[in-house]
Amino acid sequence: MTKMVLSRGVIATGDSGGGARRARRTRSSIFDRAILADALVESFHKLHPRRLARNPVMFVVAVVAALATVLFIRDLADGGANLLFSVQIIAWLWITVLFANFAEAVAEGRGRAQAASLRKTRTEASAKLMTDVATRAWRQVSALDLKLGDVVLVEAGDLIPGDGEVIEGVASVNEAAITGESAPVIRESGGDRSAVTGGTQVISDWIKVRITAAAGSTFLDRMIALVEGAVRQKTPNEIALNVLLAGMTLIFVLAIVTIPSFATYAQGTVPVIALIALFVTLIPTTIGALLSAIGIAGMDRLVRFNVLAMSGRAVEAAGDVDTLLLDKTGTITLGNRQATEFIPLPSVDARDLADAAQLSSLADETPEGRSIVVLAKETYGIRGRKMAPLHAHLVPFTAQTRMSGIDIEGQEIRKGAADAVVNYVRSTTGNRYMPTPRALQEIVERVAKSGGTPLAVARNGQILGVVHLKDIVKGGINERFGELRRMGIRTVMVTGDNPLTAAAIAAEAGVDDFLAEATPEAKLKLIRNEQAQGKLVAMCGDGTNDAPALAQADVGVAMNTGTMAAREAGNMIDLDSDPTKLIEIVAIGKQLLMTRGALTTFSIANDVAKYFAIIPAMFVAFYPQLQALNVMRLANPESAILSAIIFNALIIIALIPLALRGVRYRPSGAAALLRRNLLIYGLGGIIVPFVGIKLIDLVISAIGLA
C-alpha cells in the first residue's frame, strides 16, 4: 500500500481500502435529514437553564428574551402601544437562542449518529471461560459476566467477548466493527500485536485472551462515549474565549445603560424593548452561538478520519504543535526495507555470510527478514530449512539489544546494528577492548552514506559481513515537510538506524533533524528537552516501549494495532494504525484553531459594524448631526432595530456549515494566516452586516412590518 502526501492537508492514497474509506467519510453530507430533525427537537430541550448556563453569551440572550417576554405580557395587560414591534423583537430573540442551540445540536447529532452505528456492532456475546488453561477446558458464560484477569478461548468464527491481551496462539481477526476495514489482521501473543478489542471476530485459528477491561468500560464503550461527546469538557482555549466574550458583553451592557441618559438629554425616550434588542445585536452572539459547535465538529472531523481524540484539549494541542516526531519506517519510508546485497569481510566467503544471514532470518517474519531469505536463495541457491528438527533457539529482536538471531547446532548467529553486533562479539570473546574491524567500518559507512541500512552478521564470535537493506522514501513527502516548515513546525525523524544512514534518509526526505539509534529512553529524553524549551510535541507509537513517550508527548497518537499499554498512554487512537496520519492530525488541529479564530474575528467585526450601522439610525431624530454617519439610510429607528435583530439571528444559521466543515486549511506561517483572516473575516465581518441589514430593512419596509 503506497501513500503519497499532497498539499492542503489532503492525503491521496493508492489503496482501495482505508484511504478510500477515509475519503468517503470526509465527503459525507454535513446535513442529514434525520440529524436535522433530531437537532430541531433538541434545540427546545436545550432551553433548560442548566444547559443554557454552559454558554454565557447565549444564557444572557435567553435571560433578556425572558425579560422582554415578561414586559410584553405586562404591556399587553395595560394596553400598551406598538405591540406588533415588541412581538417581532421577542420572537427573534427566542429564535436567536434556538438557532444557537440548533448549531450545537447538529454538531452533537453527527456524533450521536456515529455512536448509533457503533452500537449496532455491539452484539450480546457469549464467552468460553477457561477453567483449565493447560488442558484448554472451558465453560460457556455471558460476556457481561467476565471479570478482569479472566482467560477466555476464542476460536474461528467466535466474537472476542471483551478487550484483552493475547497470551497464547495466533489468529486472523476481522476488526471491521471498529476500524471499518474488512481486511483481517494478525493478532498474536508476546509482541506489539497482542491487543484485541471486544466485538471483533476471529476468522481463523484460535487464541487465548486475558480480559483487561470490565464490561461497560471496553474500548468500544469508550469510543461510543467519545463520539457522543459524553465526556467532552471545555478546553483551556474555549474557557479563555468565553471569558473574553463575557468581558465584551459587559462592555456593551455599560454602553446600553448610558443610552437612556443621552435620549433624556435630547428630550426623547427609548423603549426598553428597543434597548434589549440593541443589546442582543451588539454582544458577540455569532461566535457565542457557534463556539461549542466548532469544538465538537473538530473532534468529529478526526472521528471521520478514523482517529479518536480522548479530549478536545488533544485536538487543540495538535493545532499548536511545534515539533513533530515521526518514525522513519512506514511514515517517511515505505516500511519494507529489502535486502539487496551480501557484503562479506575480506576473509569471509560471501556464500558463508549468506548462509548465516539466512539461518538467522528463517523464523523472522518481518519483511526485512523474508527479503534476506529470498536474496540468499536467488543469489546462491540456498534453500530454507525446517526449524523444528534442528532444535533451534530463537533470539528475538529488542529495542535495547538491537539484535536478533538464532542458536542452532552449536552455532550462535546474530544479526543487527553494527555497533550492537561488535559489542556482542566483544562480550562473547571476552575481549572488551577489541577494535571494530576497519573493513566493517568502511562497509557500514559506504552503505549508510548511500541511504541504506547496514545489518552486521556474526557467528560464534566472528563478524562475517554486512547485509545491505535499502529504504525507499515515500514520494511527495519532501514537499509536505516543506509545508510543515513554512508553518513553523520542526520535523524530527526517529529511527533505530545508525547516524550515517539516518542522515542520508533525513536529507532525502527533507526533515529538519533526526534521532538515530533511538531507544525508548532516547525518545522520552528528546520529548522532555523540546518541552523544556516551551514547545508542544506530537508523536505516534504502538509498542509497550513507546508508552512512556506517548504519555509525555502533548499529542500522543497510539496505533489501534498496538499494545494496550500504548493505547492507554496516548491521548489519541488511530483506528487505521497509519503513522502517516500524524501529519493530517496536525492539519485538523490547525483547522480547528483557524476556524475558531476566523469566526471570532468575523463576530467581533460584525458587532463593531452593527454598532455604527444602527446607532446613527436610532438617534438621528434626537441628534440631527448623526445624519452624516447614517450612511445606510434605514427607513426608521424601529426598522433599523428589527432589521439588525433579524440579521443577528440569520447569520448564525448561515455560518453553521462553515463551523462544521471548518475554514479551508492552507499550510502557511502564522503572519500569513493572520493577514488572510483579517482580510476575509475581518473585512467581511464589517461589510456583511451593512449589506444584510439594508436588504432586510428594504423587505421590512416593503411589507409594512415596521
Keywords:
4 domains, Rossmann fold, 52% helix, Calcium-transporting ATPase, cytoplasmic transduction domain A, 7-stranded antiparallel β-sheet, 706 residues, elongated, alpha+beta, single chain, 7-stranded mixed β-sheet
Number of helices: 23
Task: Please tell me the total number of domains.
Answer: 4
Sheet having the most strands: 7 strands, antiparallel
State mean pLDDT (0 to 100 scale).
Answer: 83
Strand content: 15-25%
Stretches where pLDDT falls below 50 for ≥5 residues?
1-28
Based on CA atoms alone, the radius of gyration comes out at 33 Å
Oligomer status? single chain
Measure the end-to-end span: 65 Å
**Share of helix among residues?**
40-55%
General form: elongated
Q: How would you describe what is shown here?
A:
The chain has 706 residues and is α+β, with helices and mostly antiparallel strands. It folds into four domains: 270 residues, no CATH class; 86 residues, Calcium-transporting ATPase, cytoplasmic transduction domain A, CATH 2.70.150.10; 128 residues, 3-Layer(aba) Sandwich (Rossmann fold), CATH 3.40.50.1000; 139 residues, Calcium-transporting ATPase, cytoplasmic domain N (3-Layer(aba) Sandwich). 52% of the residues lie in helices and 17% in strands. It contains 23 helices and 22 strands. The strands form four sheets. Strands 3, 4, 5, 6, 7, 8 and 9 form a seven-stranded antiparallel beta sheet that branches. Helix 5 runs parallel beside helix 10 and helix 12 packs antiparallel against helix 13. The chain starts with a strand and ends with a helix.
